[in-house]
Amino acid sequence: MAKHPKLGKNIRSEVIVIGGGISGALIAHRLTNLGMQVTIVEGRKIGAGSTAASTAILSYEADVNLGELIKKFGRRAAVRAYRAGVEAIDSIGQTIKTLDDSCDFKKRRSLYLASNRKDVKLLEREFKTRRANNFDVELLRQPELSRRFSLDAPCAILNEQAAEVNPLKLTLALVRSGQNKGLKVFVHTKVTTYRREGQESVLTTEDNFQIRAKHVVFATGYETQQFLKQRTVRLVSTYAIASTPRIVFPEKYEYPVIWETARPYLYVRTTADSRIVVGGEDVEFLDENRRDRLLPSKTMVLQKKAHKMFPHLSWKLATAWTGTFAESKDGLPYIGPHTLYAGAQFALGYGGNGITFAAIASRIIPDLISNTKNSDAHIFRFGRHSK
Predict the structure, then answer these.
(1) CB 112 within 8 A of CB 135
(2) DSSP character for 121?
(3) Cα 382 → chain centroid
(4) Helices (H) and strands (E) in the chain, counts
């Protein structure tokens, strides 16, 4: 991990990106490639916080099913939101080809499991909805799931358009690439206030330095709540475990990324060094101390669920961790301007698909900054209304 300086003077930049996680890195990388003068300001280290905690399953599927989104927003907007996720995963893969690290990126299949027999009809409806809207999916019944994946579930939707990545490697590689083209980075620099003066935004840090910019992008995840205080957002603590590496997987089974219909849901993937990563057991976030105290008990529950899901695998626990994220009621991110912050754009990848949503934001926000029409901007805007 490269060392970056702490801001020690007043500065000015064309664009300031607040937040050095995966969202800020993707957006700063794109803006820099467009020839803009960009500076990242991060309160911790680059890639810390939710990015380092992410299990990094890349899926186009939002936490709210397509069928439910259609009821909320109509067919065109809902289908486009899902389709934007497909394109985002592809764009991440293409971007990584230009970087100095493969970032452990790998295309994967995805299984959306029925957690119990009561959810079979729900999954069957969702499958029909996706097929009717030209998504490449397949409905697998229990015998097929057992034969191909050694999974004991009533049924599942299989899709071919998922992936996995190492989120910290990706963030660092994006920043390195941007720095080669003039991107500036300051860490341990927390922004405390924001105001607009004419055509400039003025940010003040906790050390009382001023940062001036024509455009500002907030890419600060759930911590953005200190500025916005949205009532439509819920803060959630999630828990994850990883096995020791070099698990011997039976050759006859496939290992896709997995999630399920239960809420909160379990999510699973393997890694480049042959580990199992399992996450879930989400609870409402109250404070960091209470979140962290639950880690031992949540770890035990995740271990039991993982052993039940993969009884044929031999593995040991290597590590466990917890993180916090925000989720919106409709499962979609908030991307774009906010009425309370003139001159600013927000990239808030709320929900379980934070990295996919960050890639969507990295396409929308540069267009908004450069006054280029983006047909997806209205779908993810603040103030969107469901039917």
Answers:
(1) no
(2) H
(3) 18
(4) 11, 17
The model's pTM is 0.92
Note whether 55 and 241 are within 8 A (CB). Answer: no
Helix (H, G, I), strand (E, B) or coil at 259: strand
Measured in degrees and rounded to the nearest 5, phi and psi for residue 185 equal -135, 130
Under 8 Å between Cβ of 326 and 225: yes
**What residues have CB less than 8 Å from 323, skipping those under 6 apart?**
49, 50, 52, 53, 54, 237, 238, 240
Give 10-residue mean pLDDT values along the chain (387 residues).
91 96 96 97 91 89 92 94 96 97 94 94 96 96 92 93 94 97 96 93 96 95 70 83 92 84 89 92 89 96 93 92 86 91 89 88 96 94 78
Q: Which is the CATH superfamily of the domain at 106-164+233-328?
A: D-Amino Acid Oxidase, subunit A, domain 2 (3.30.9.10)
- Could you state, in order of their start, the residue ranges of all structural domains in the chain? 1-104+165-231+330-387, 106-164+233-328
Taking phi first (over 0 means left), then psi (-120 to 50 degrees means alpha), and beta for anything else, what does residue 371 get? left
Closest CA to 126 of 287, 274, 260: 260
CA 194 vs. chain centroid, Å, equals 26
CATH number of 1-104+165-231+330-387: 3.50.50.60
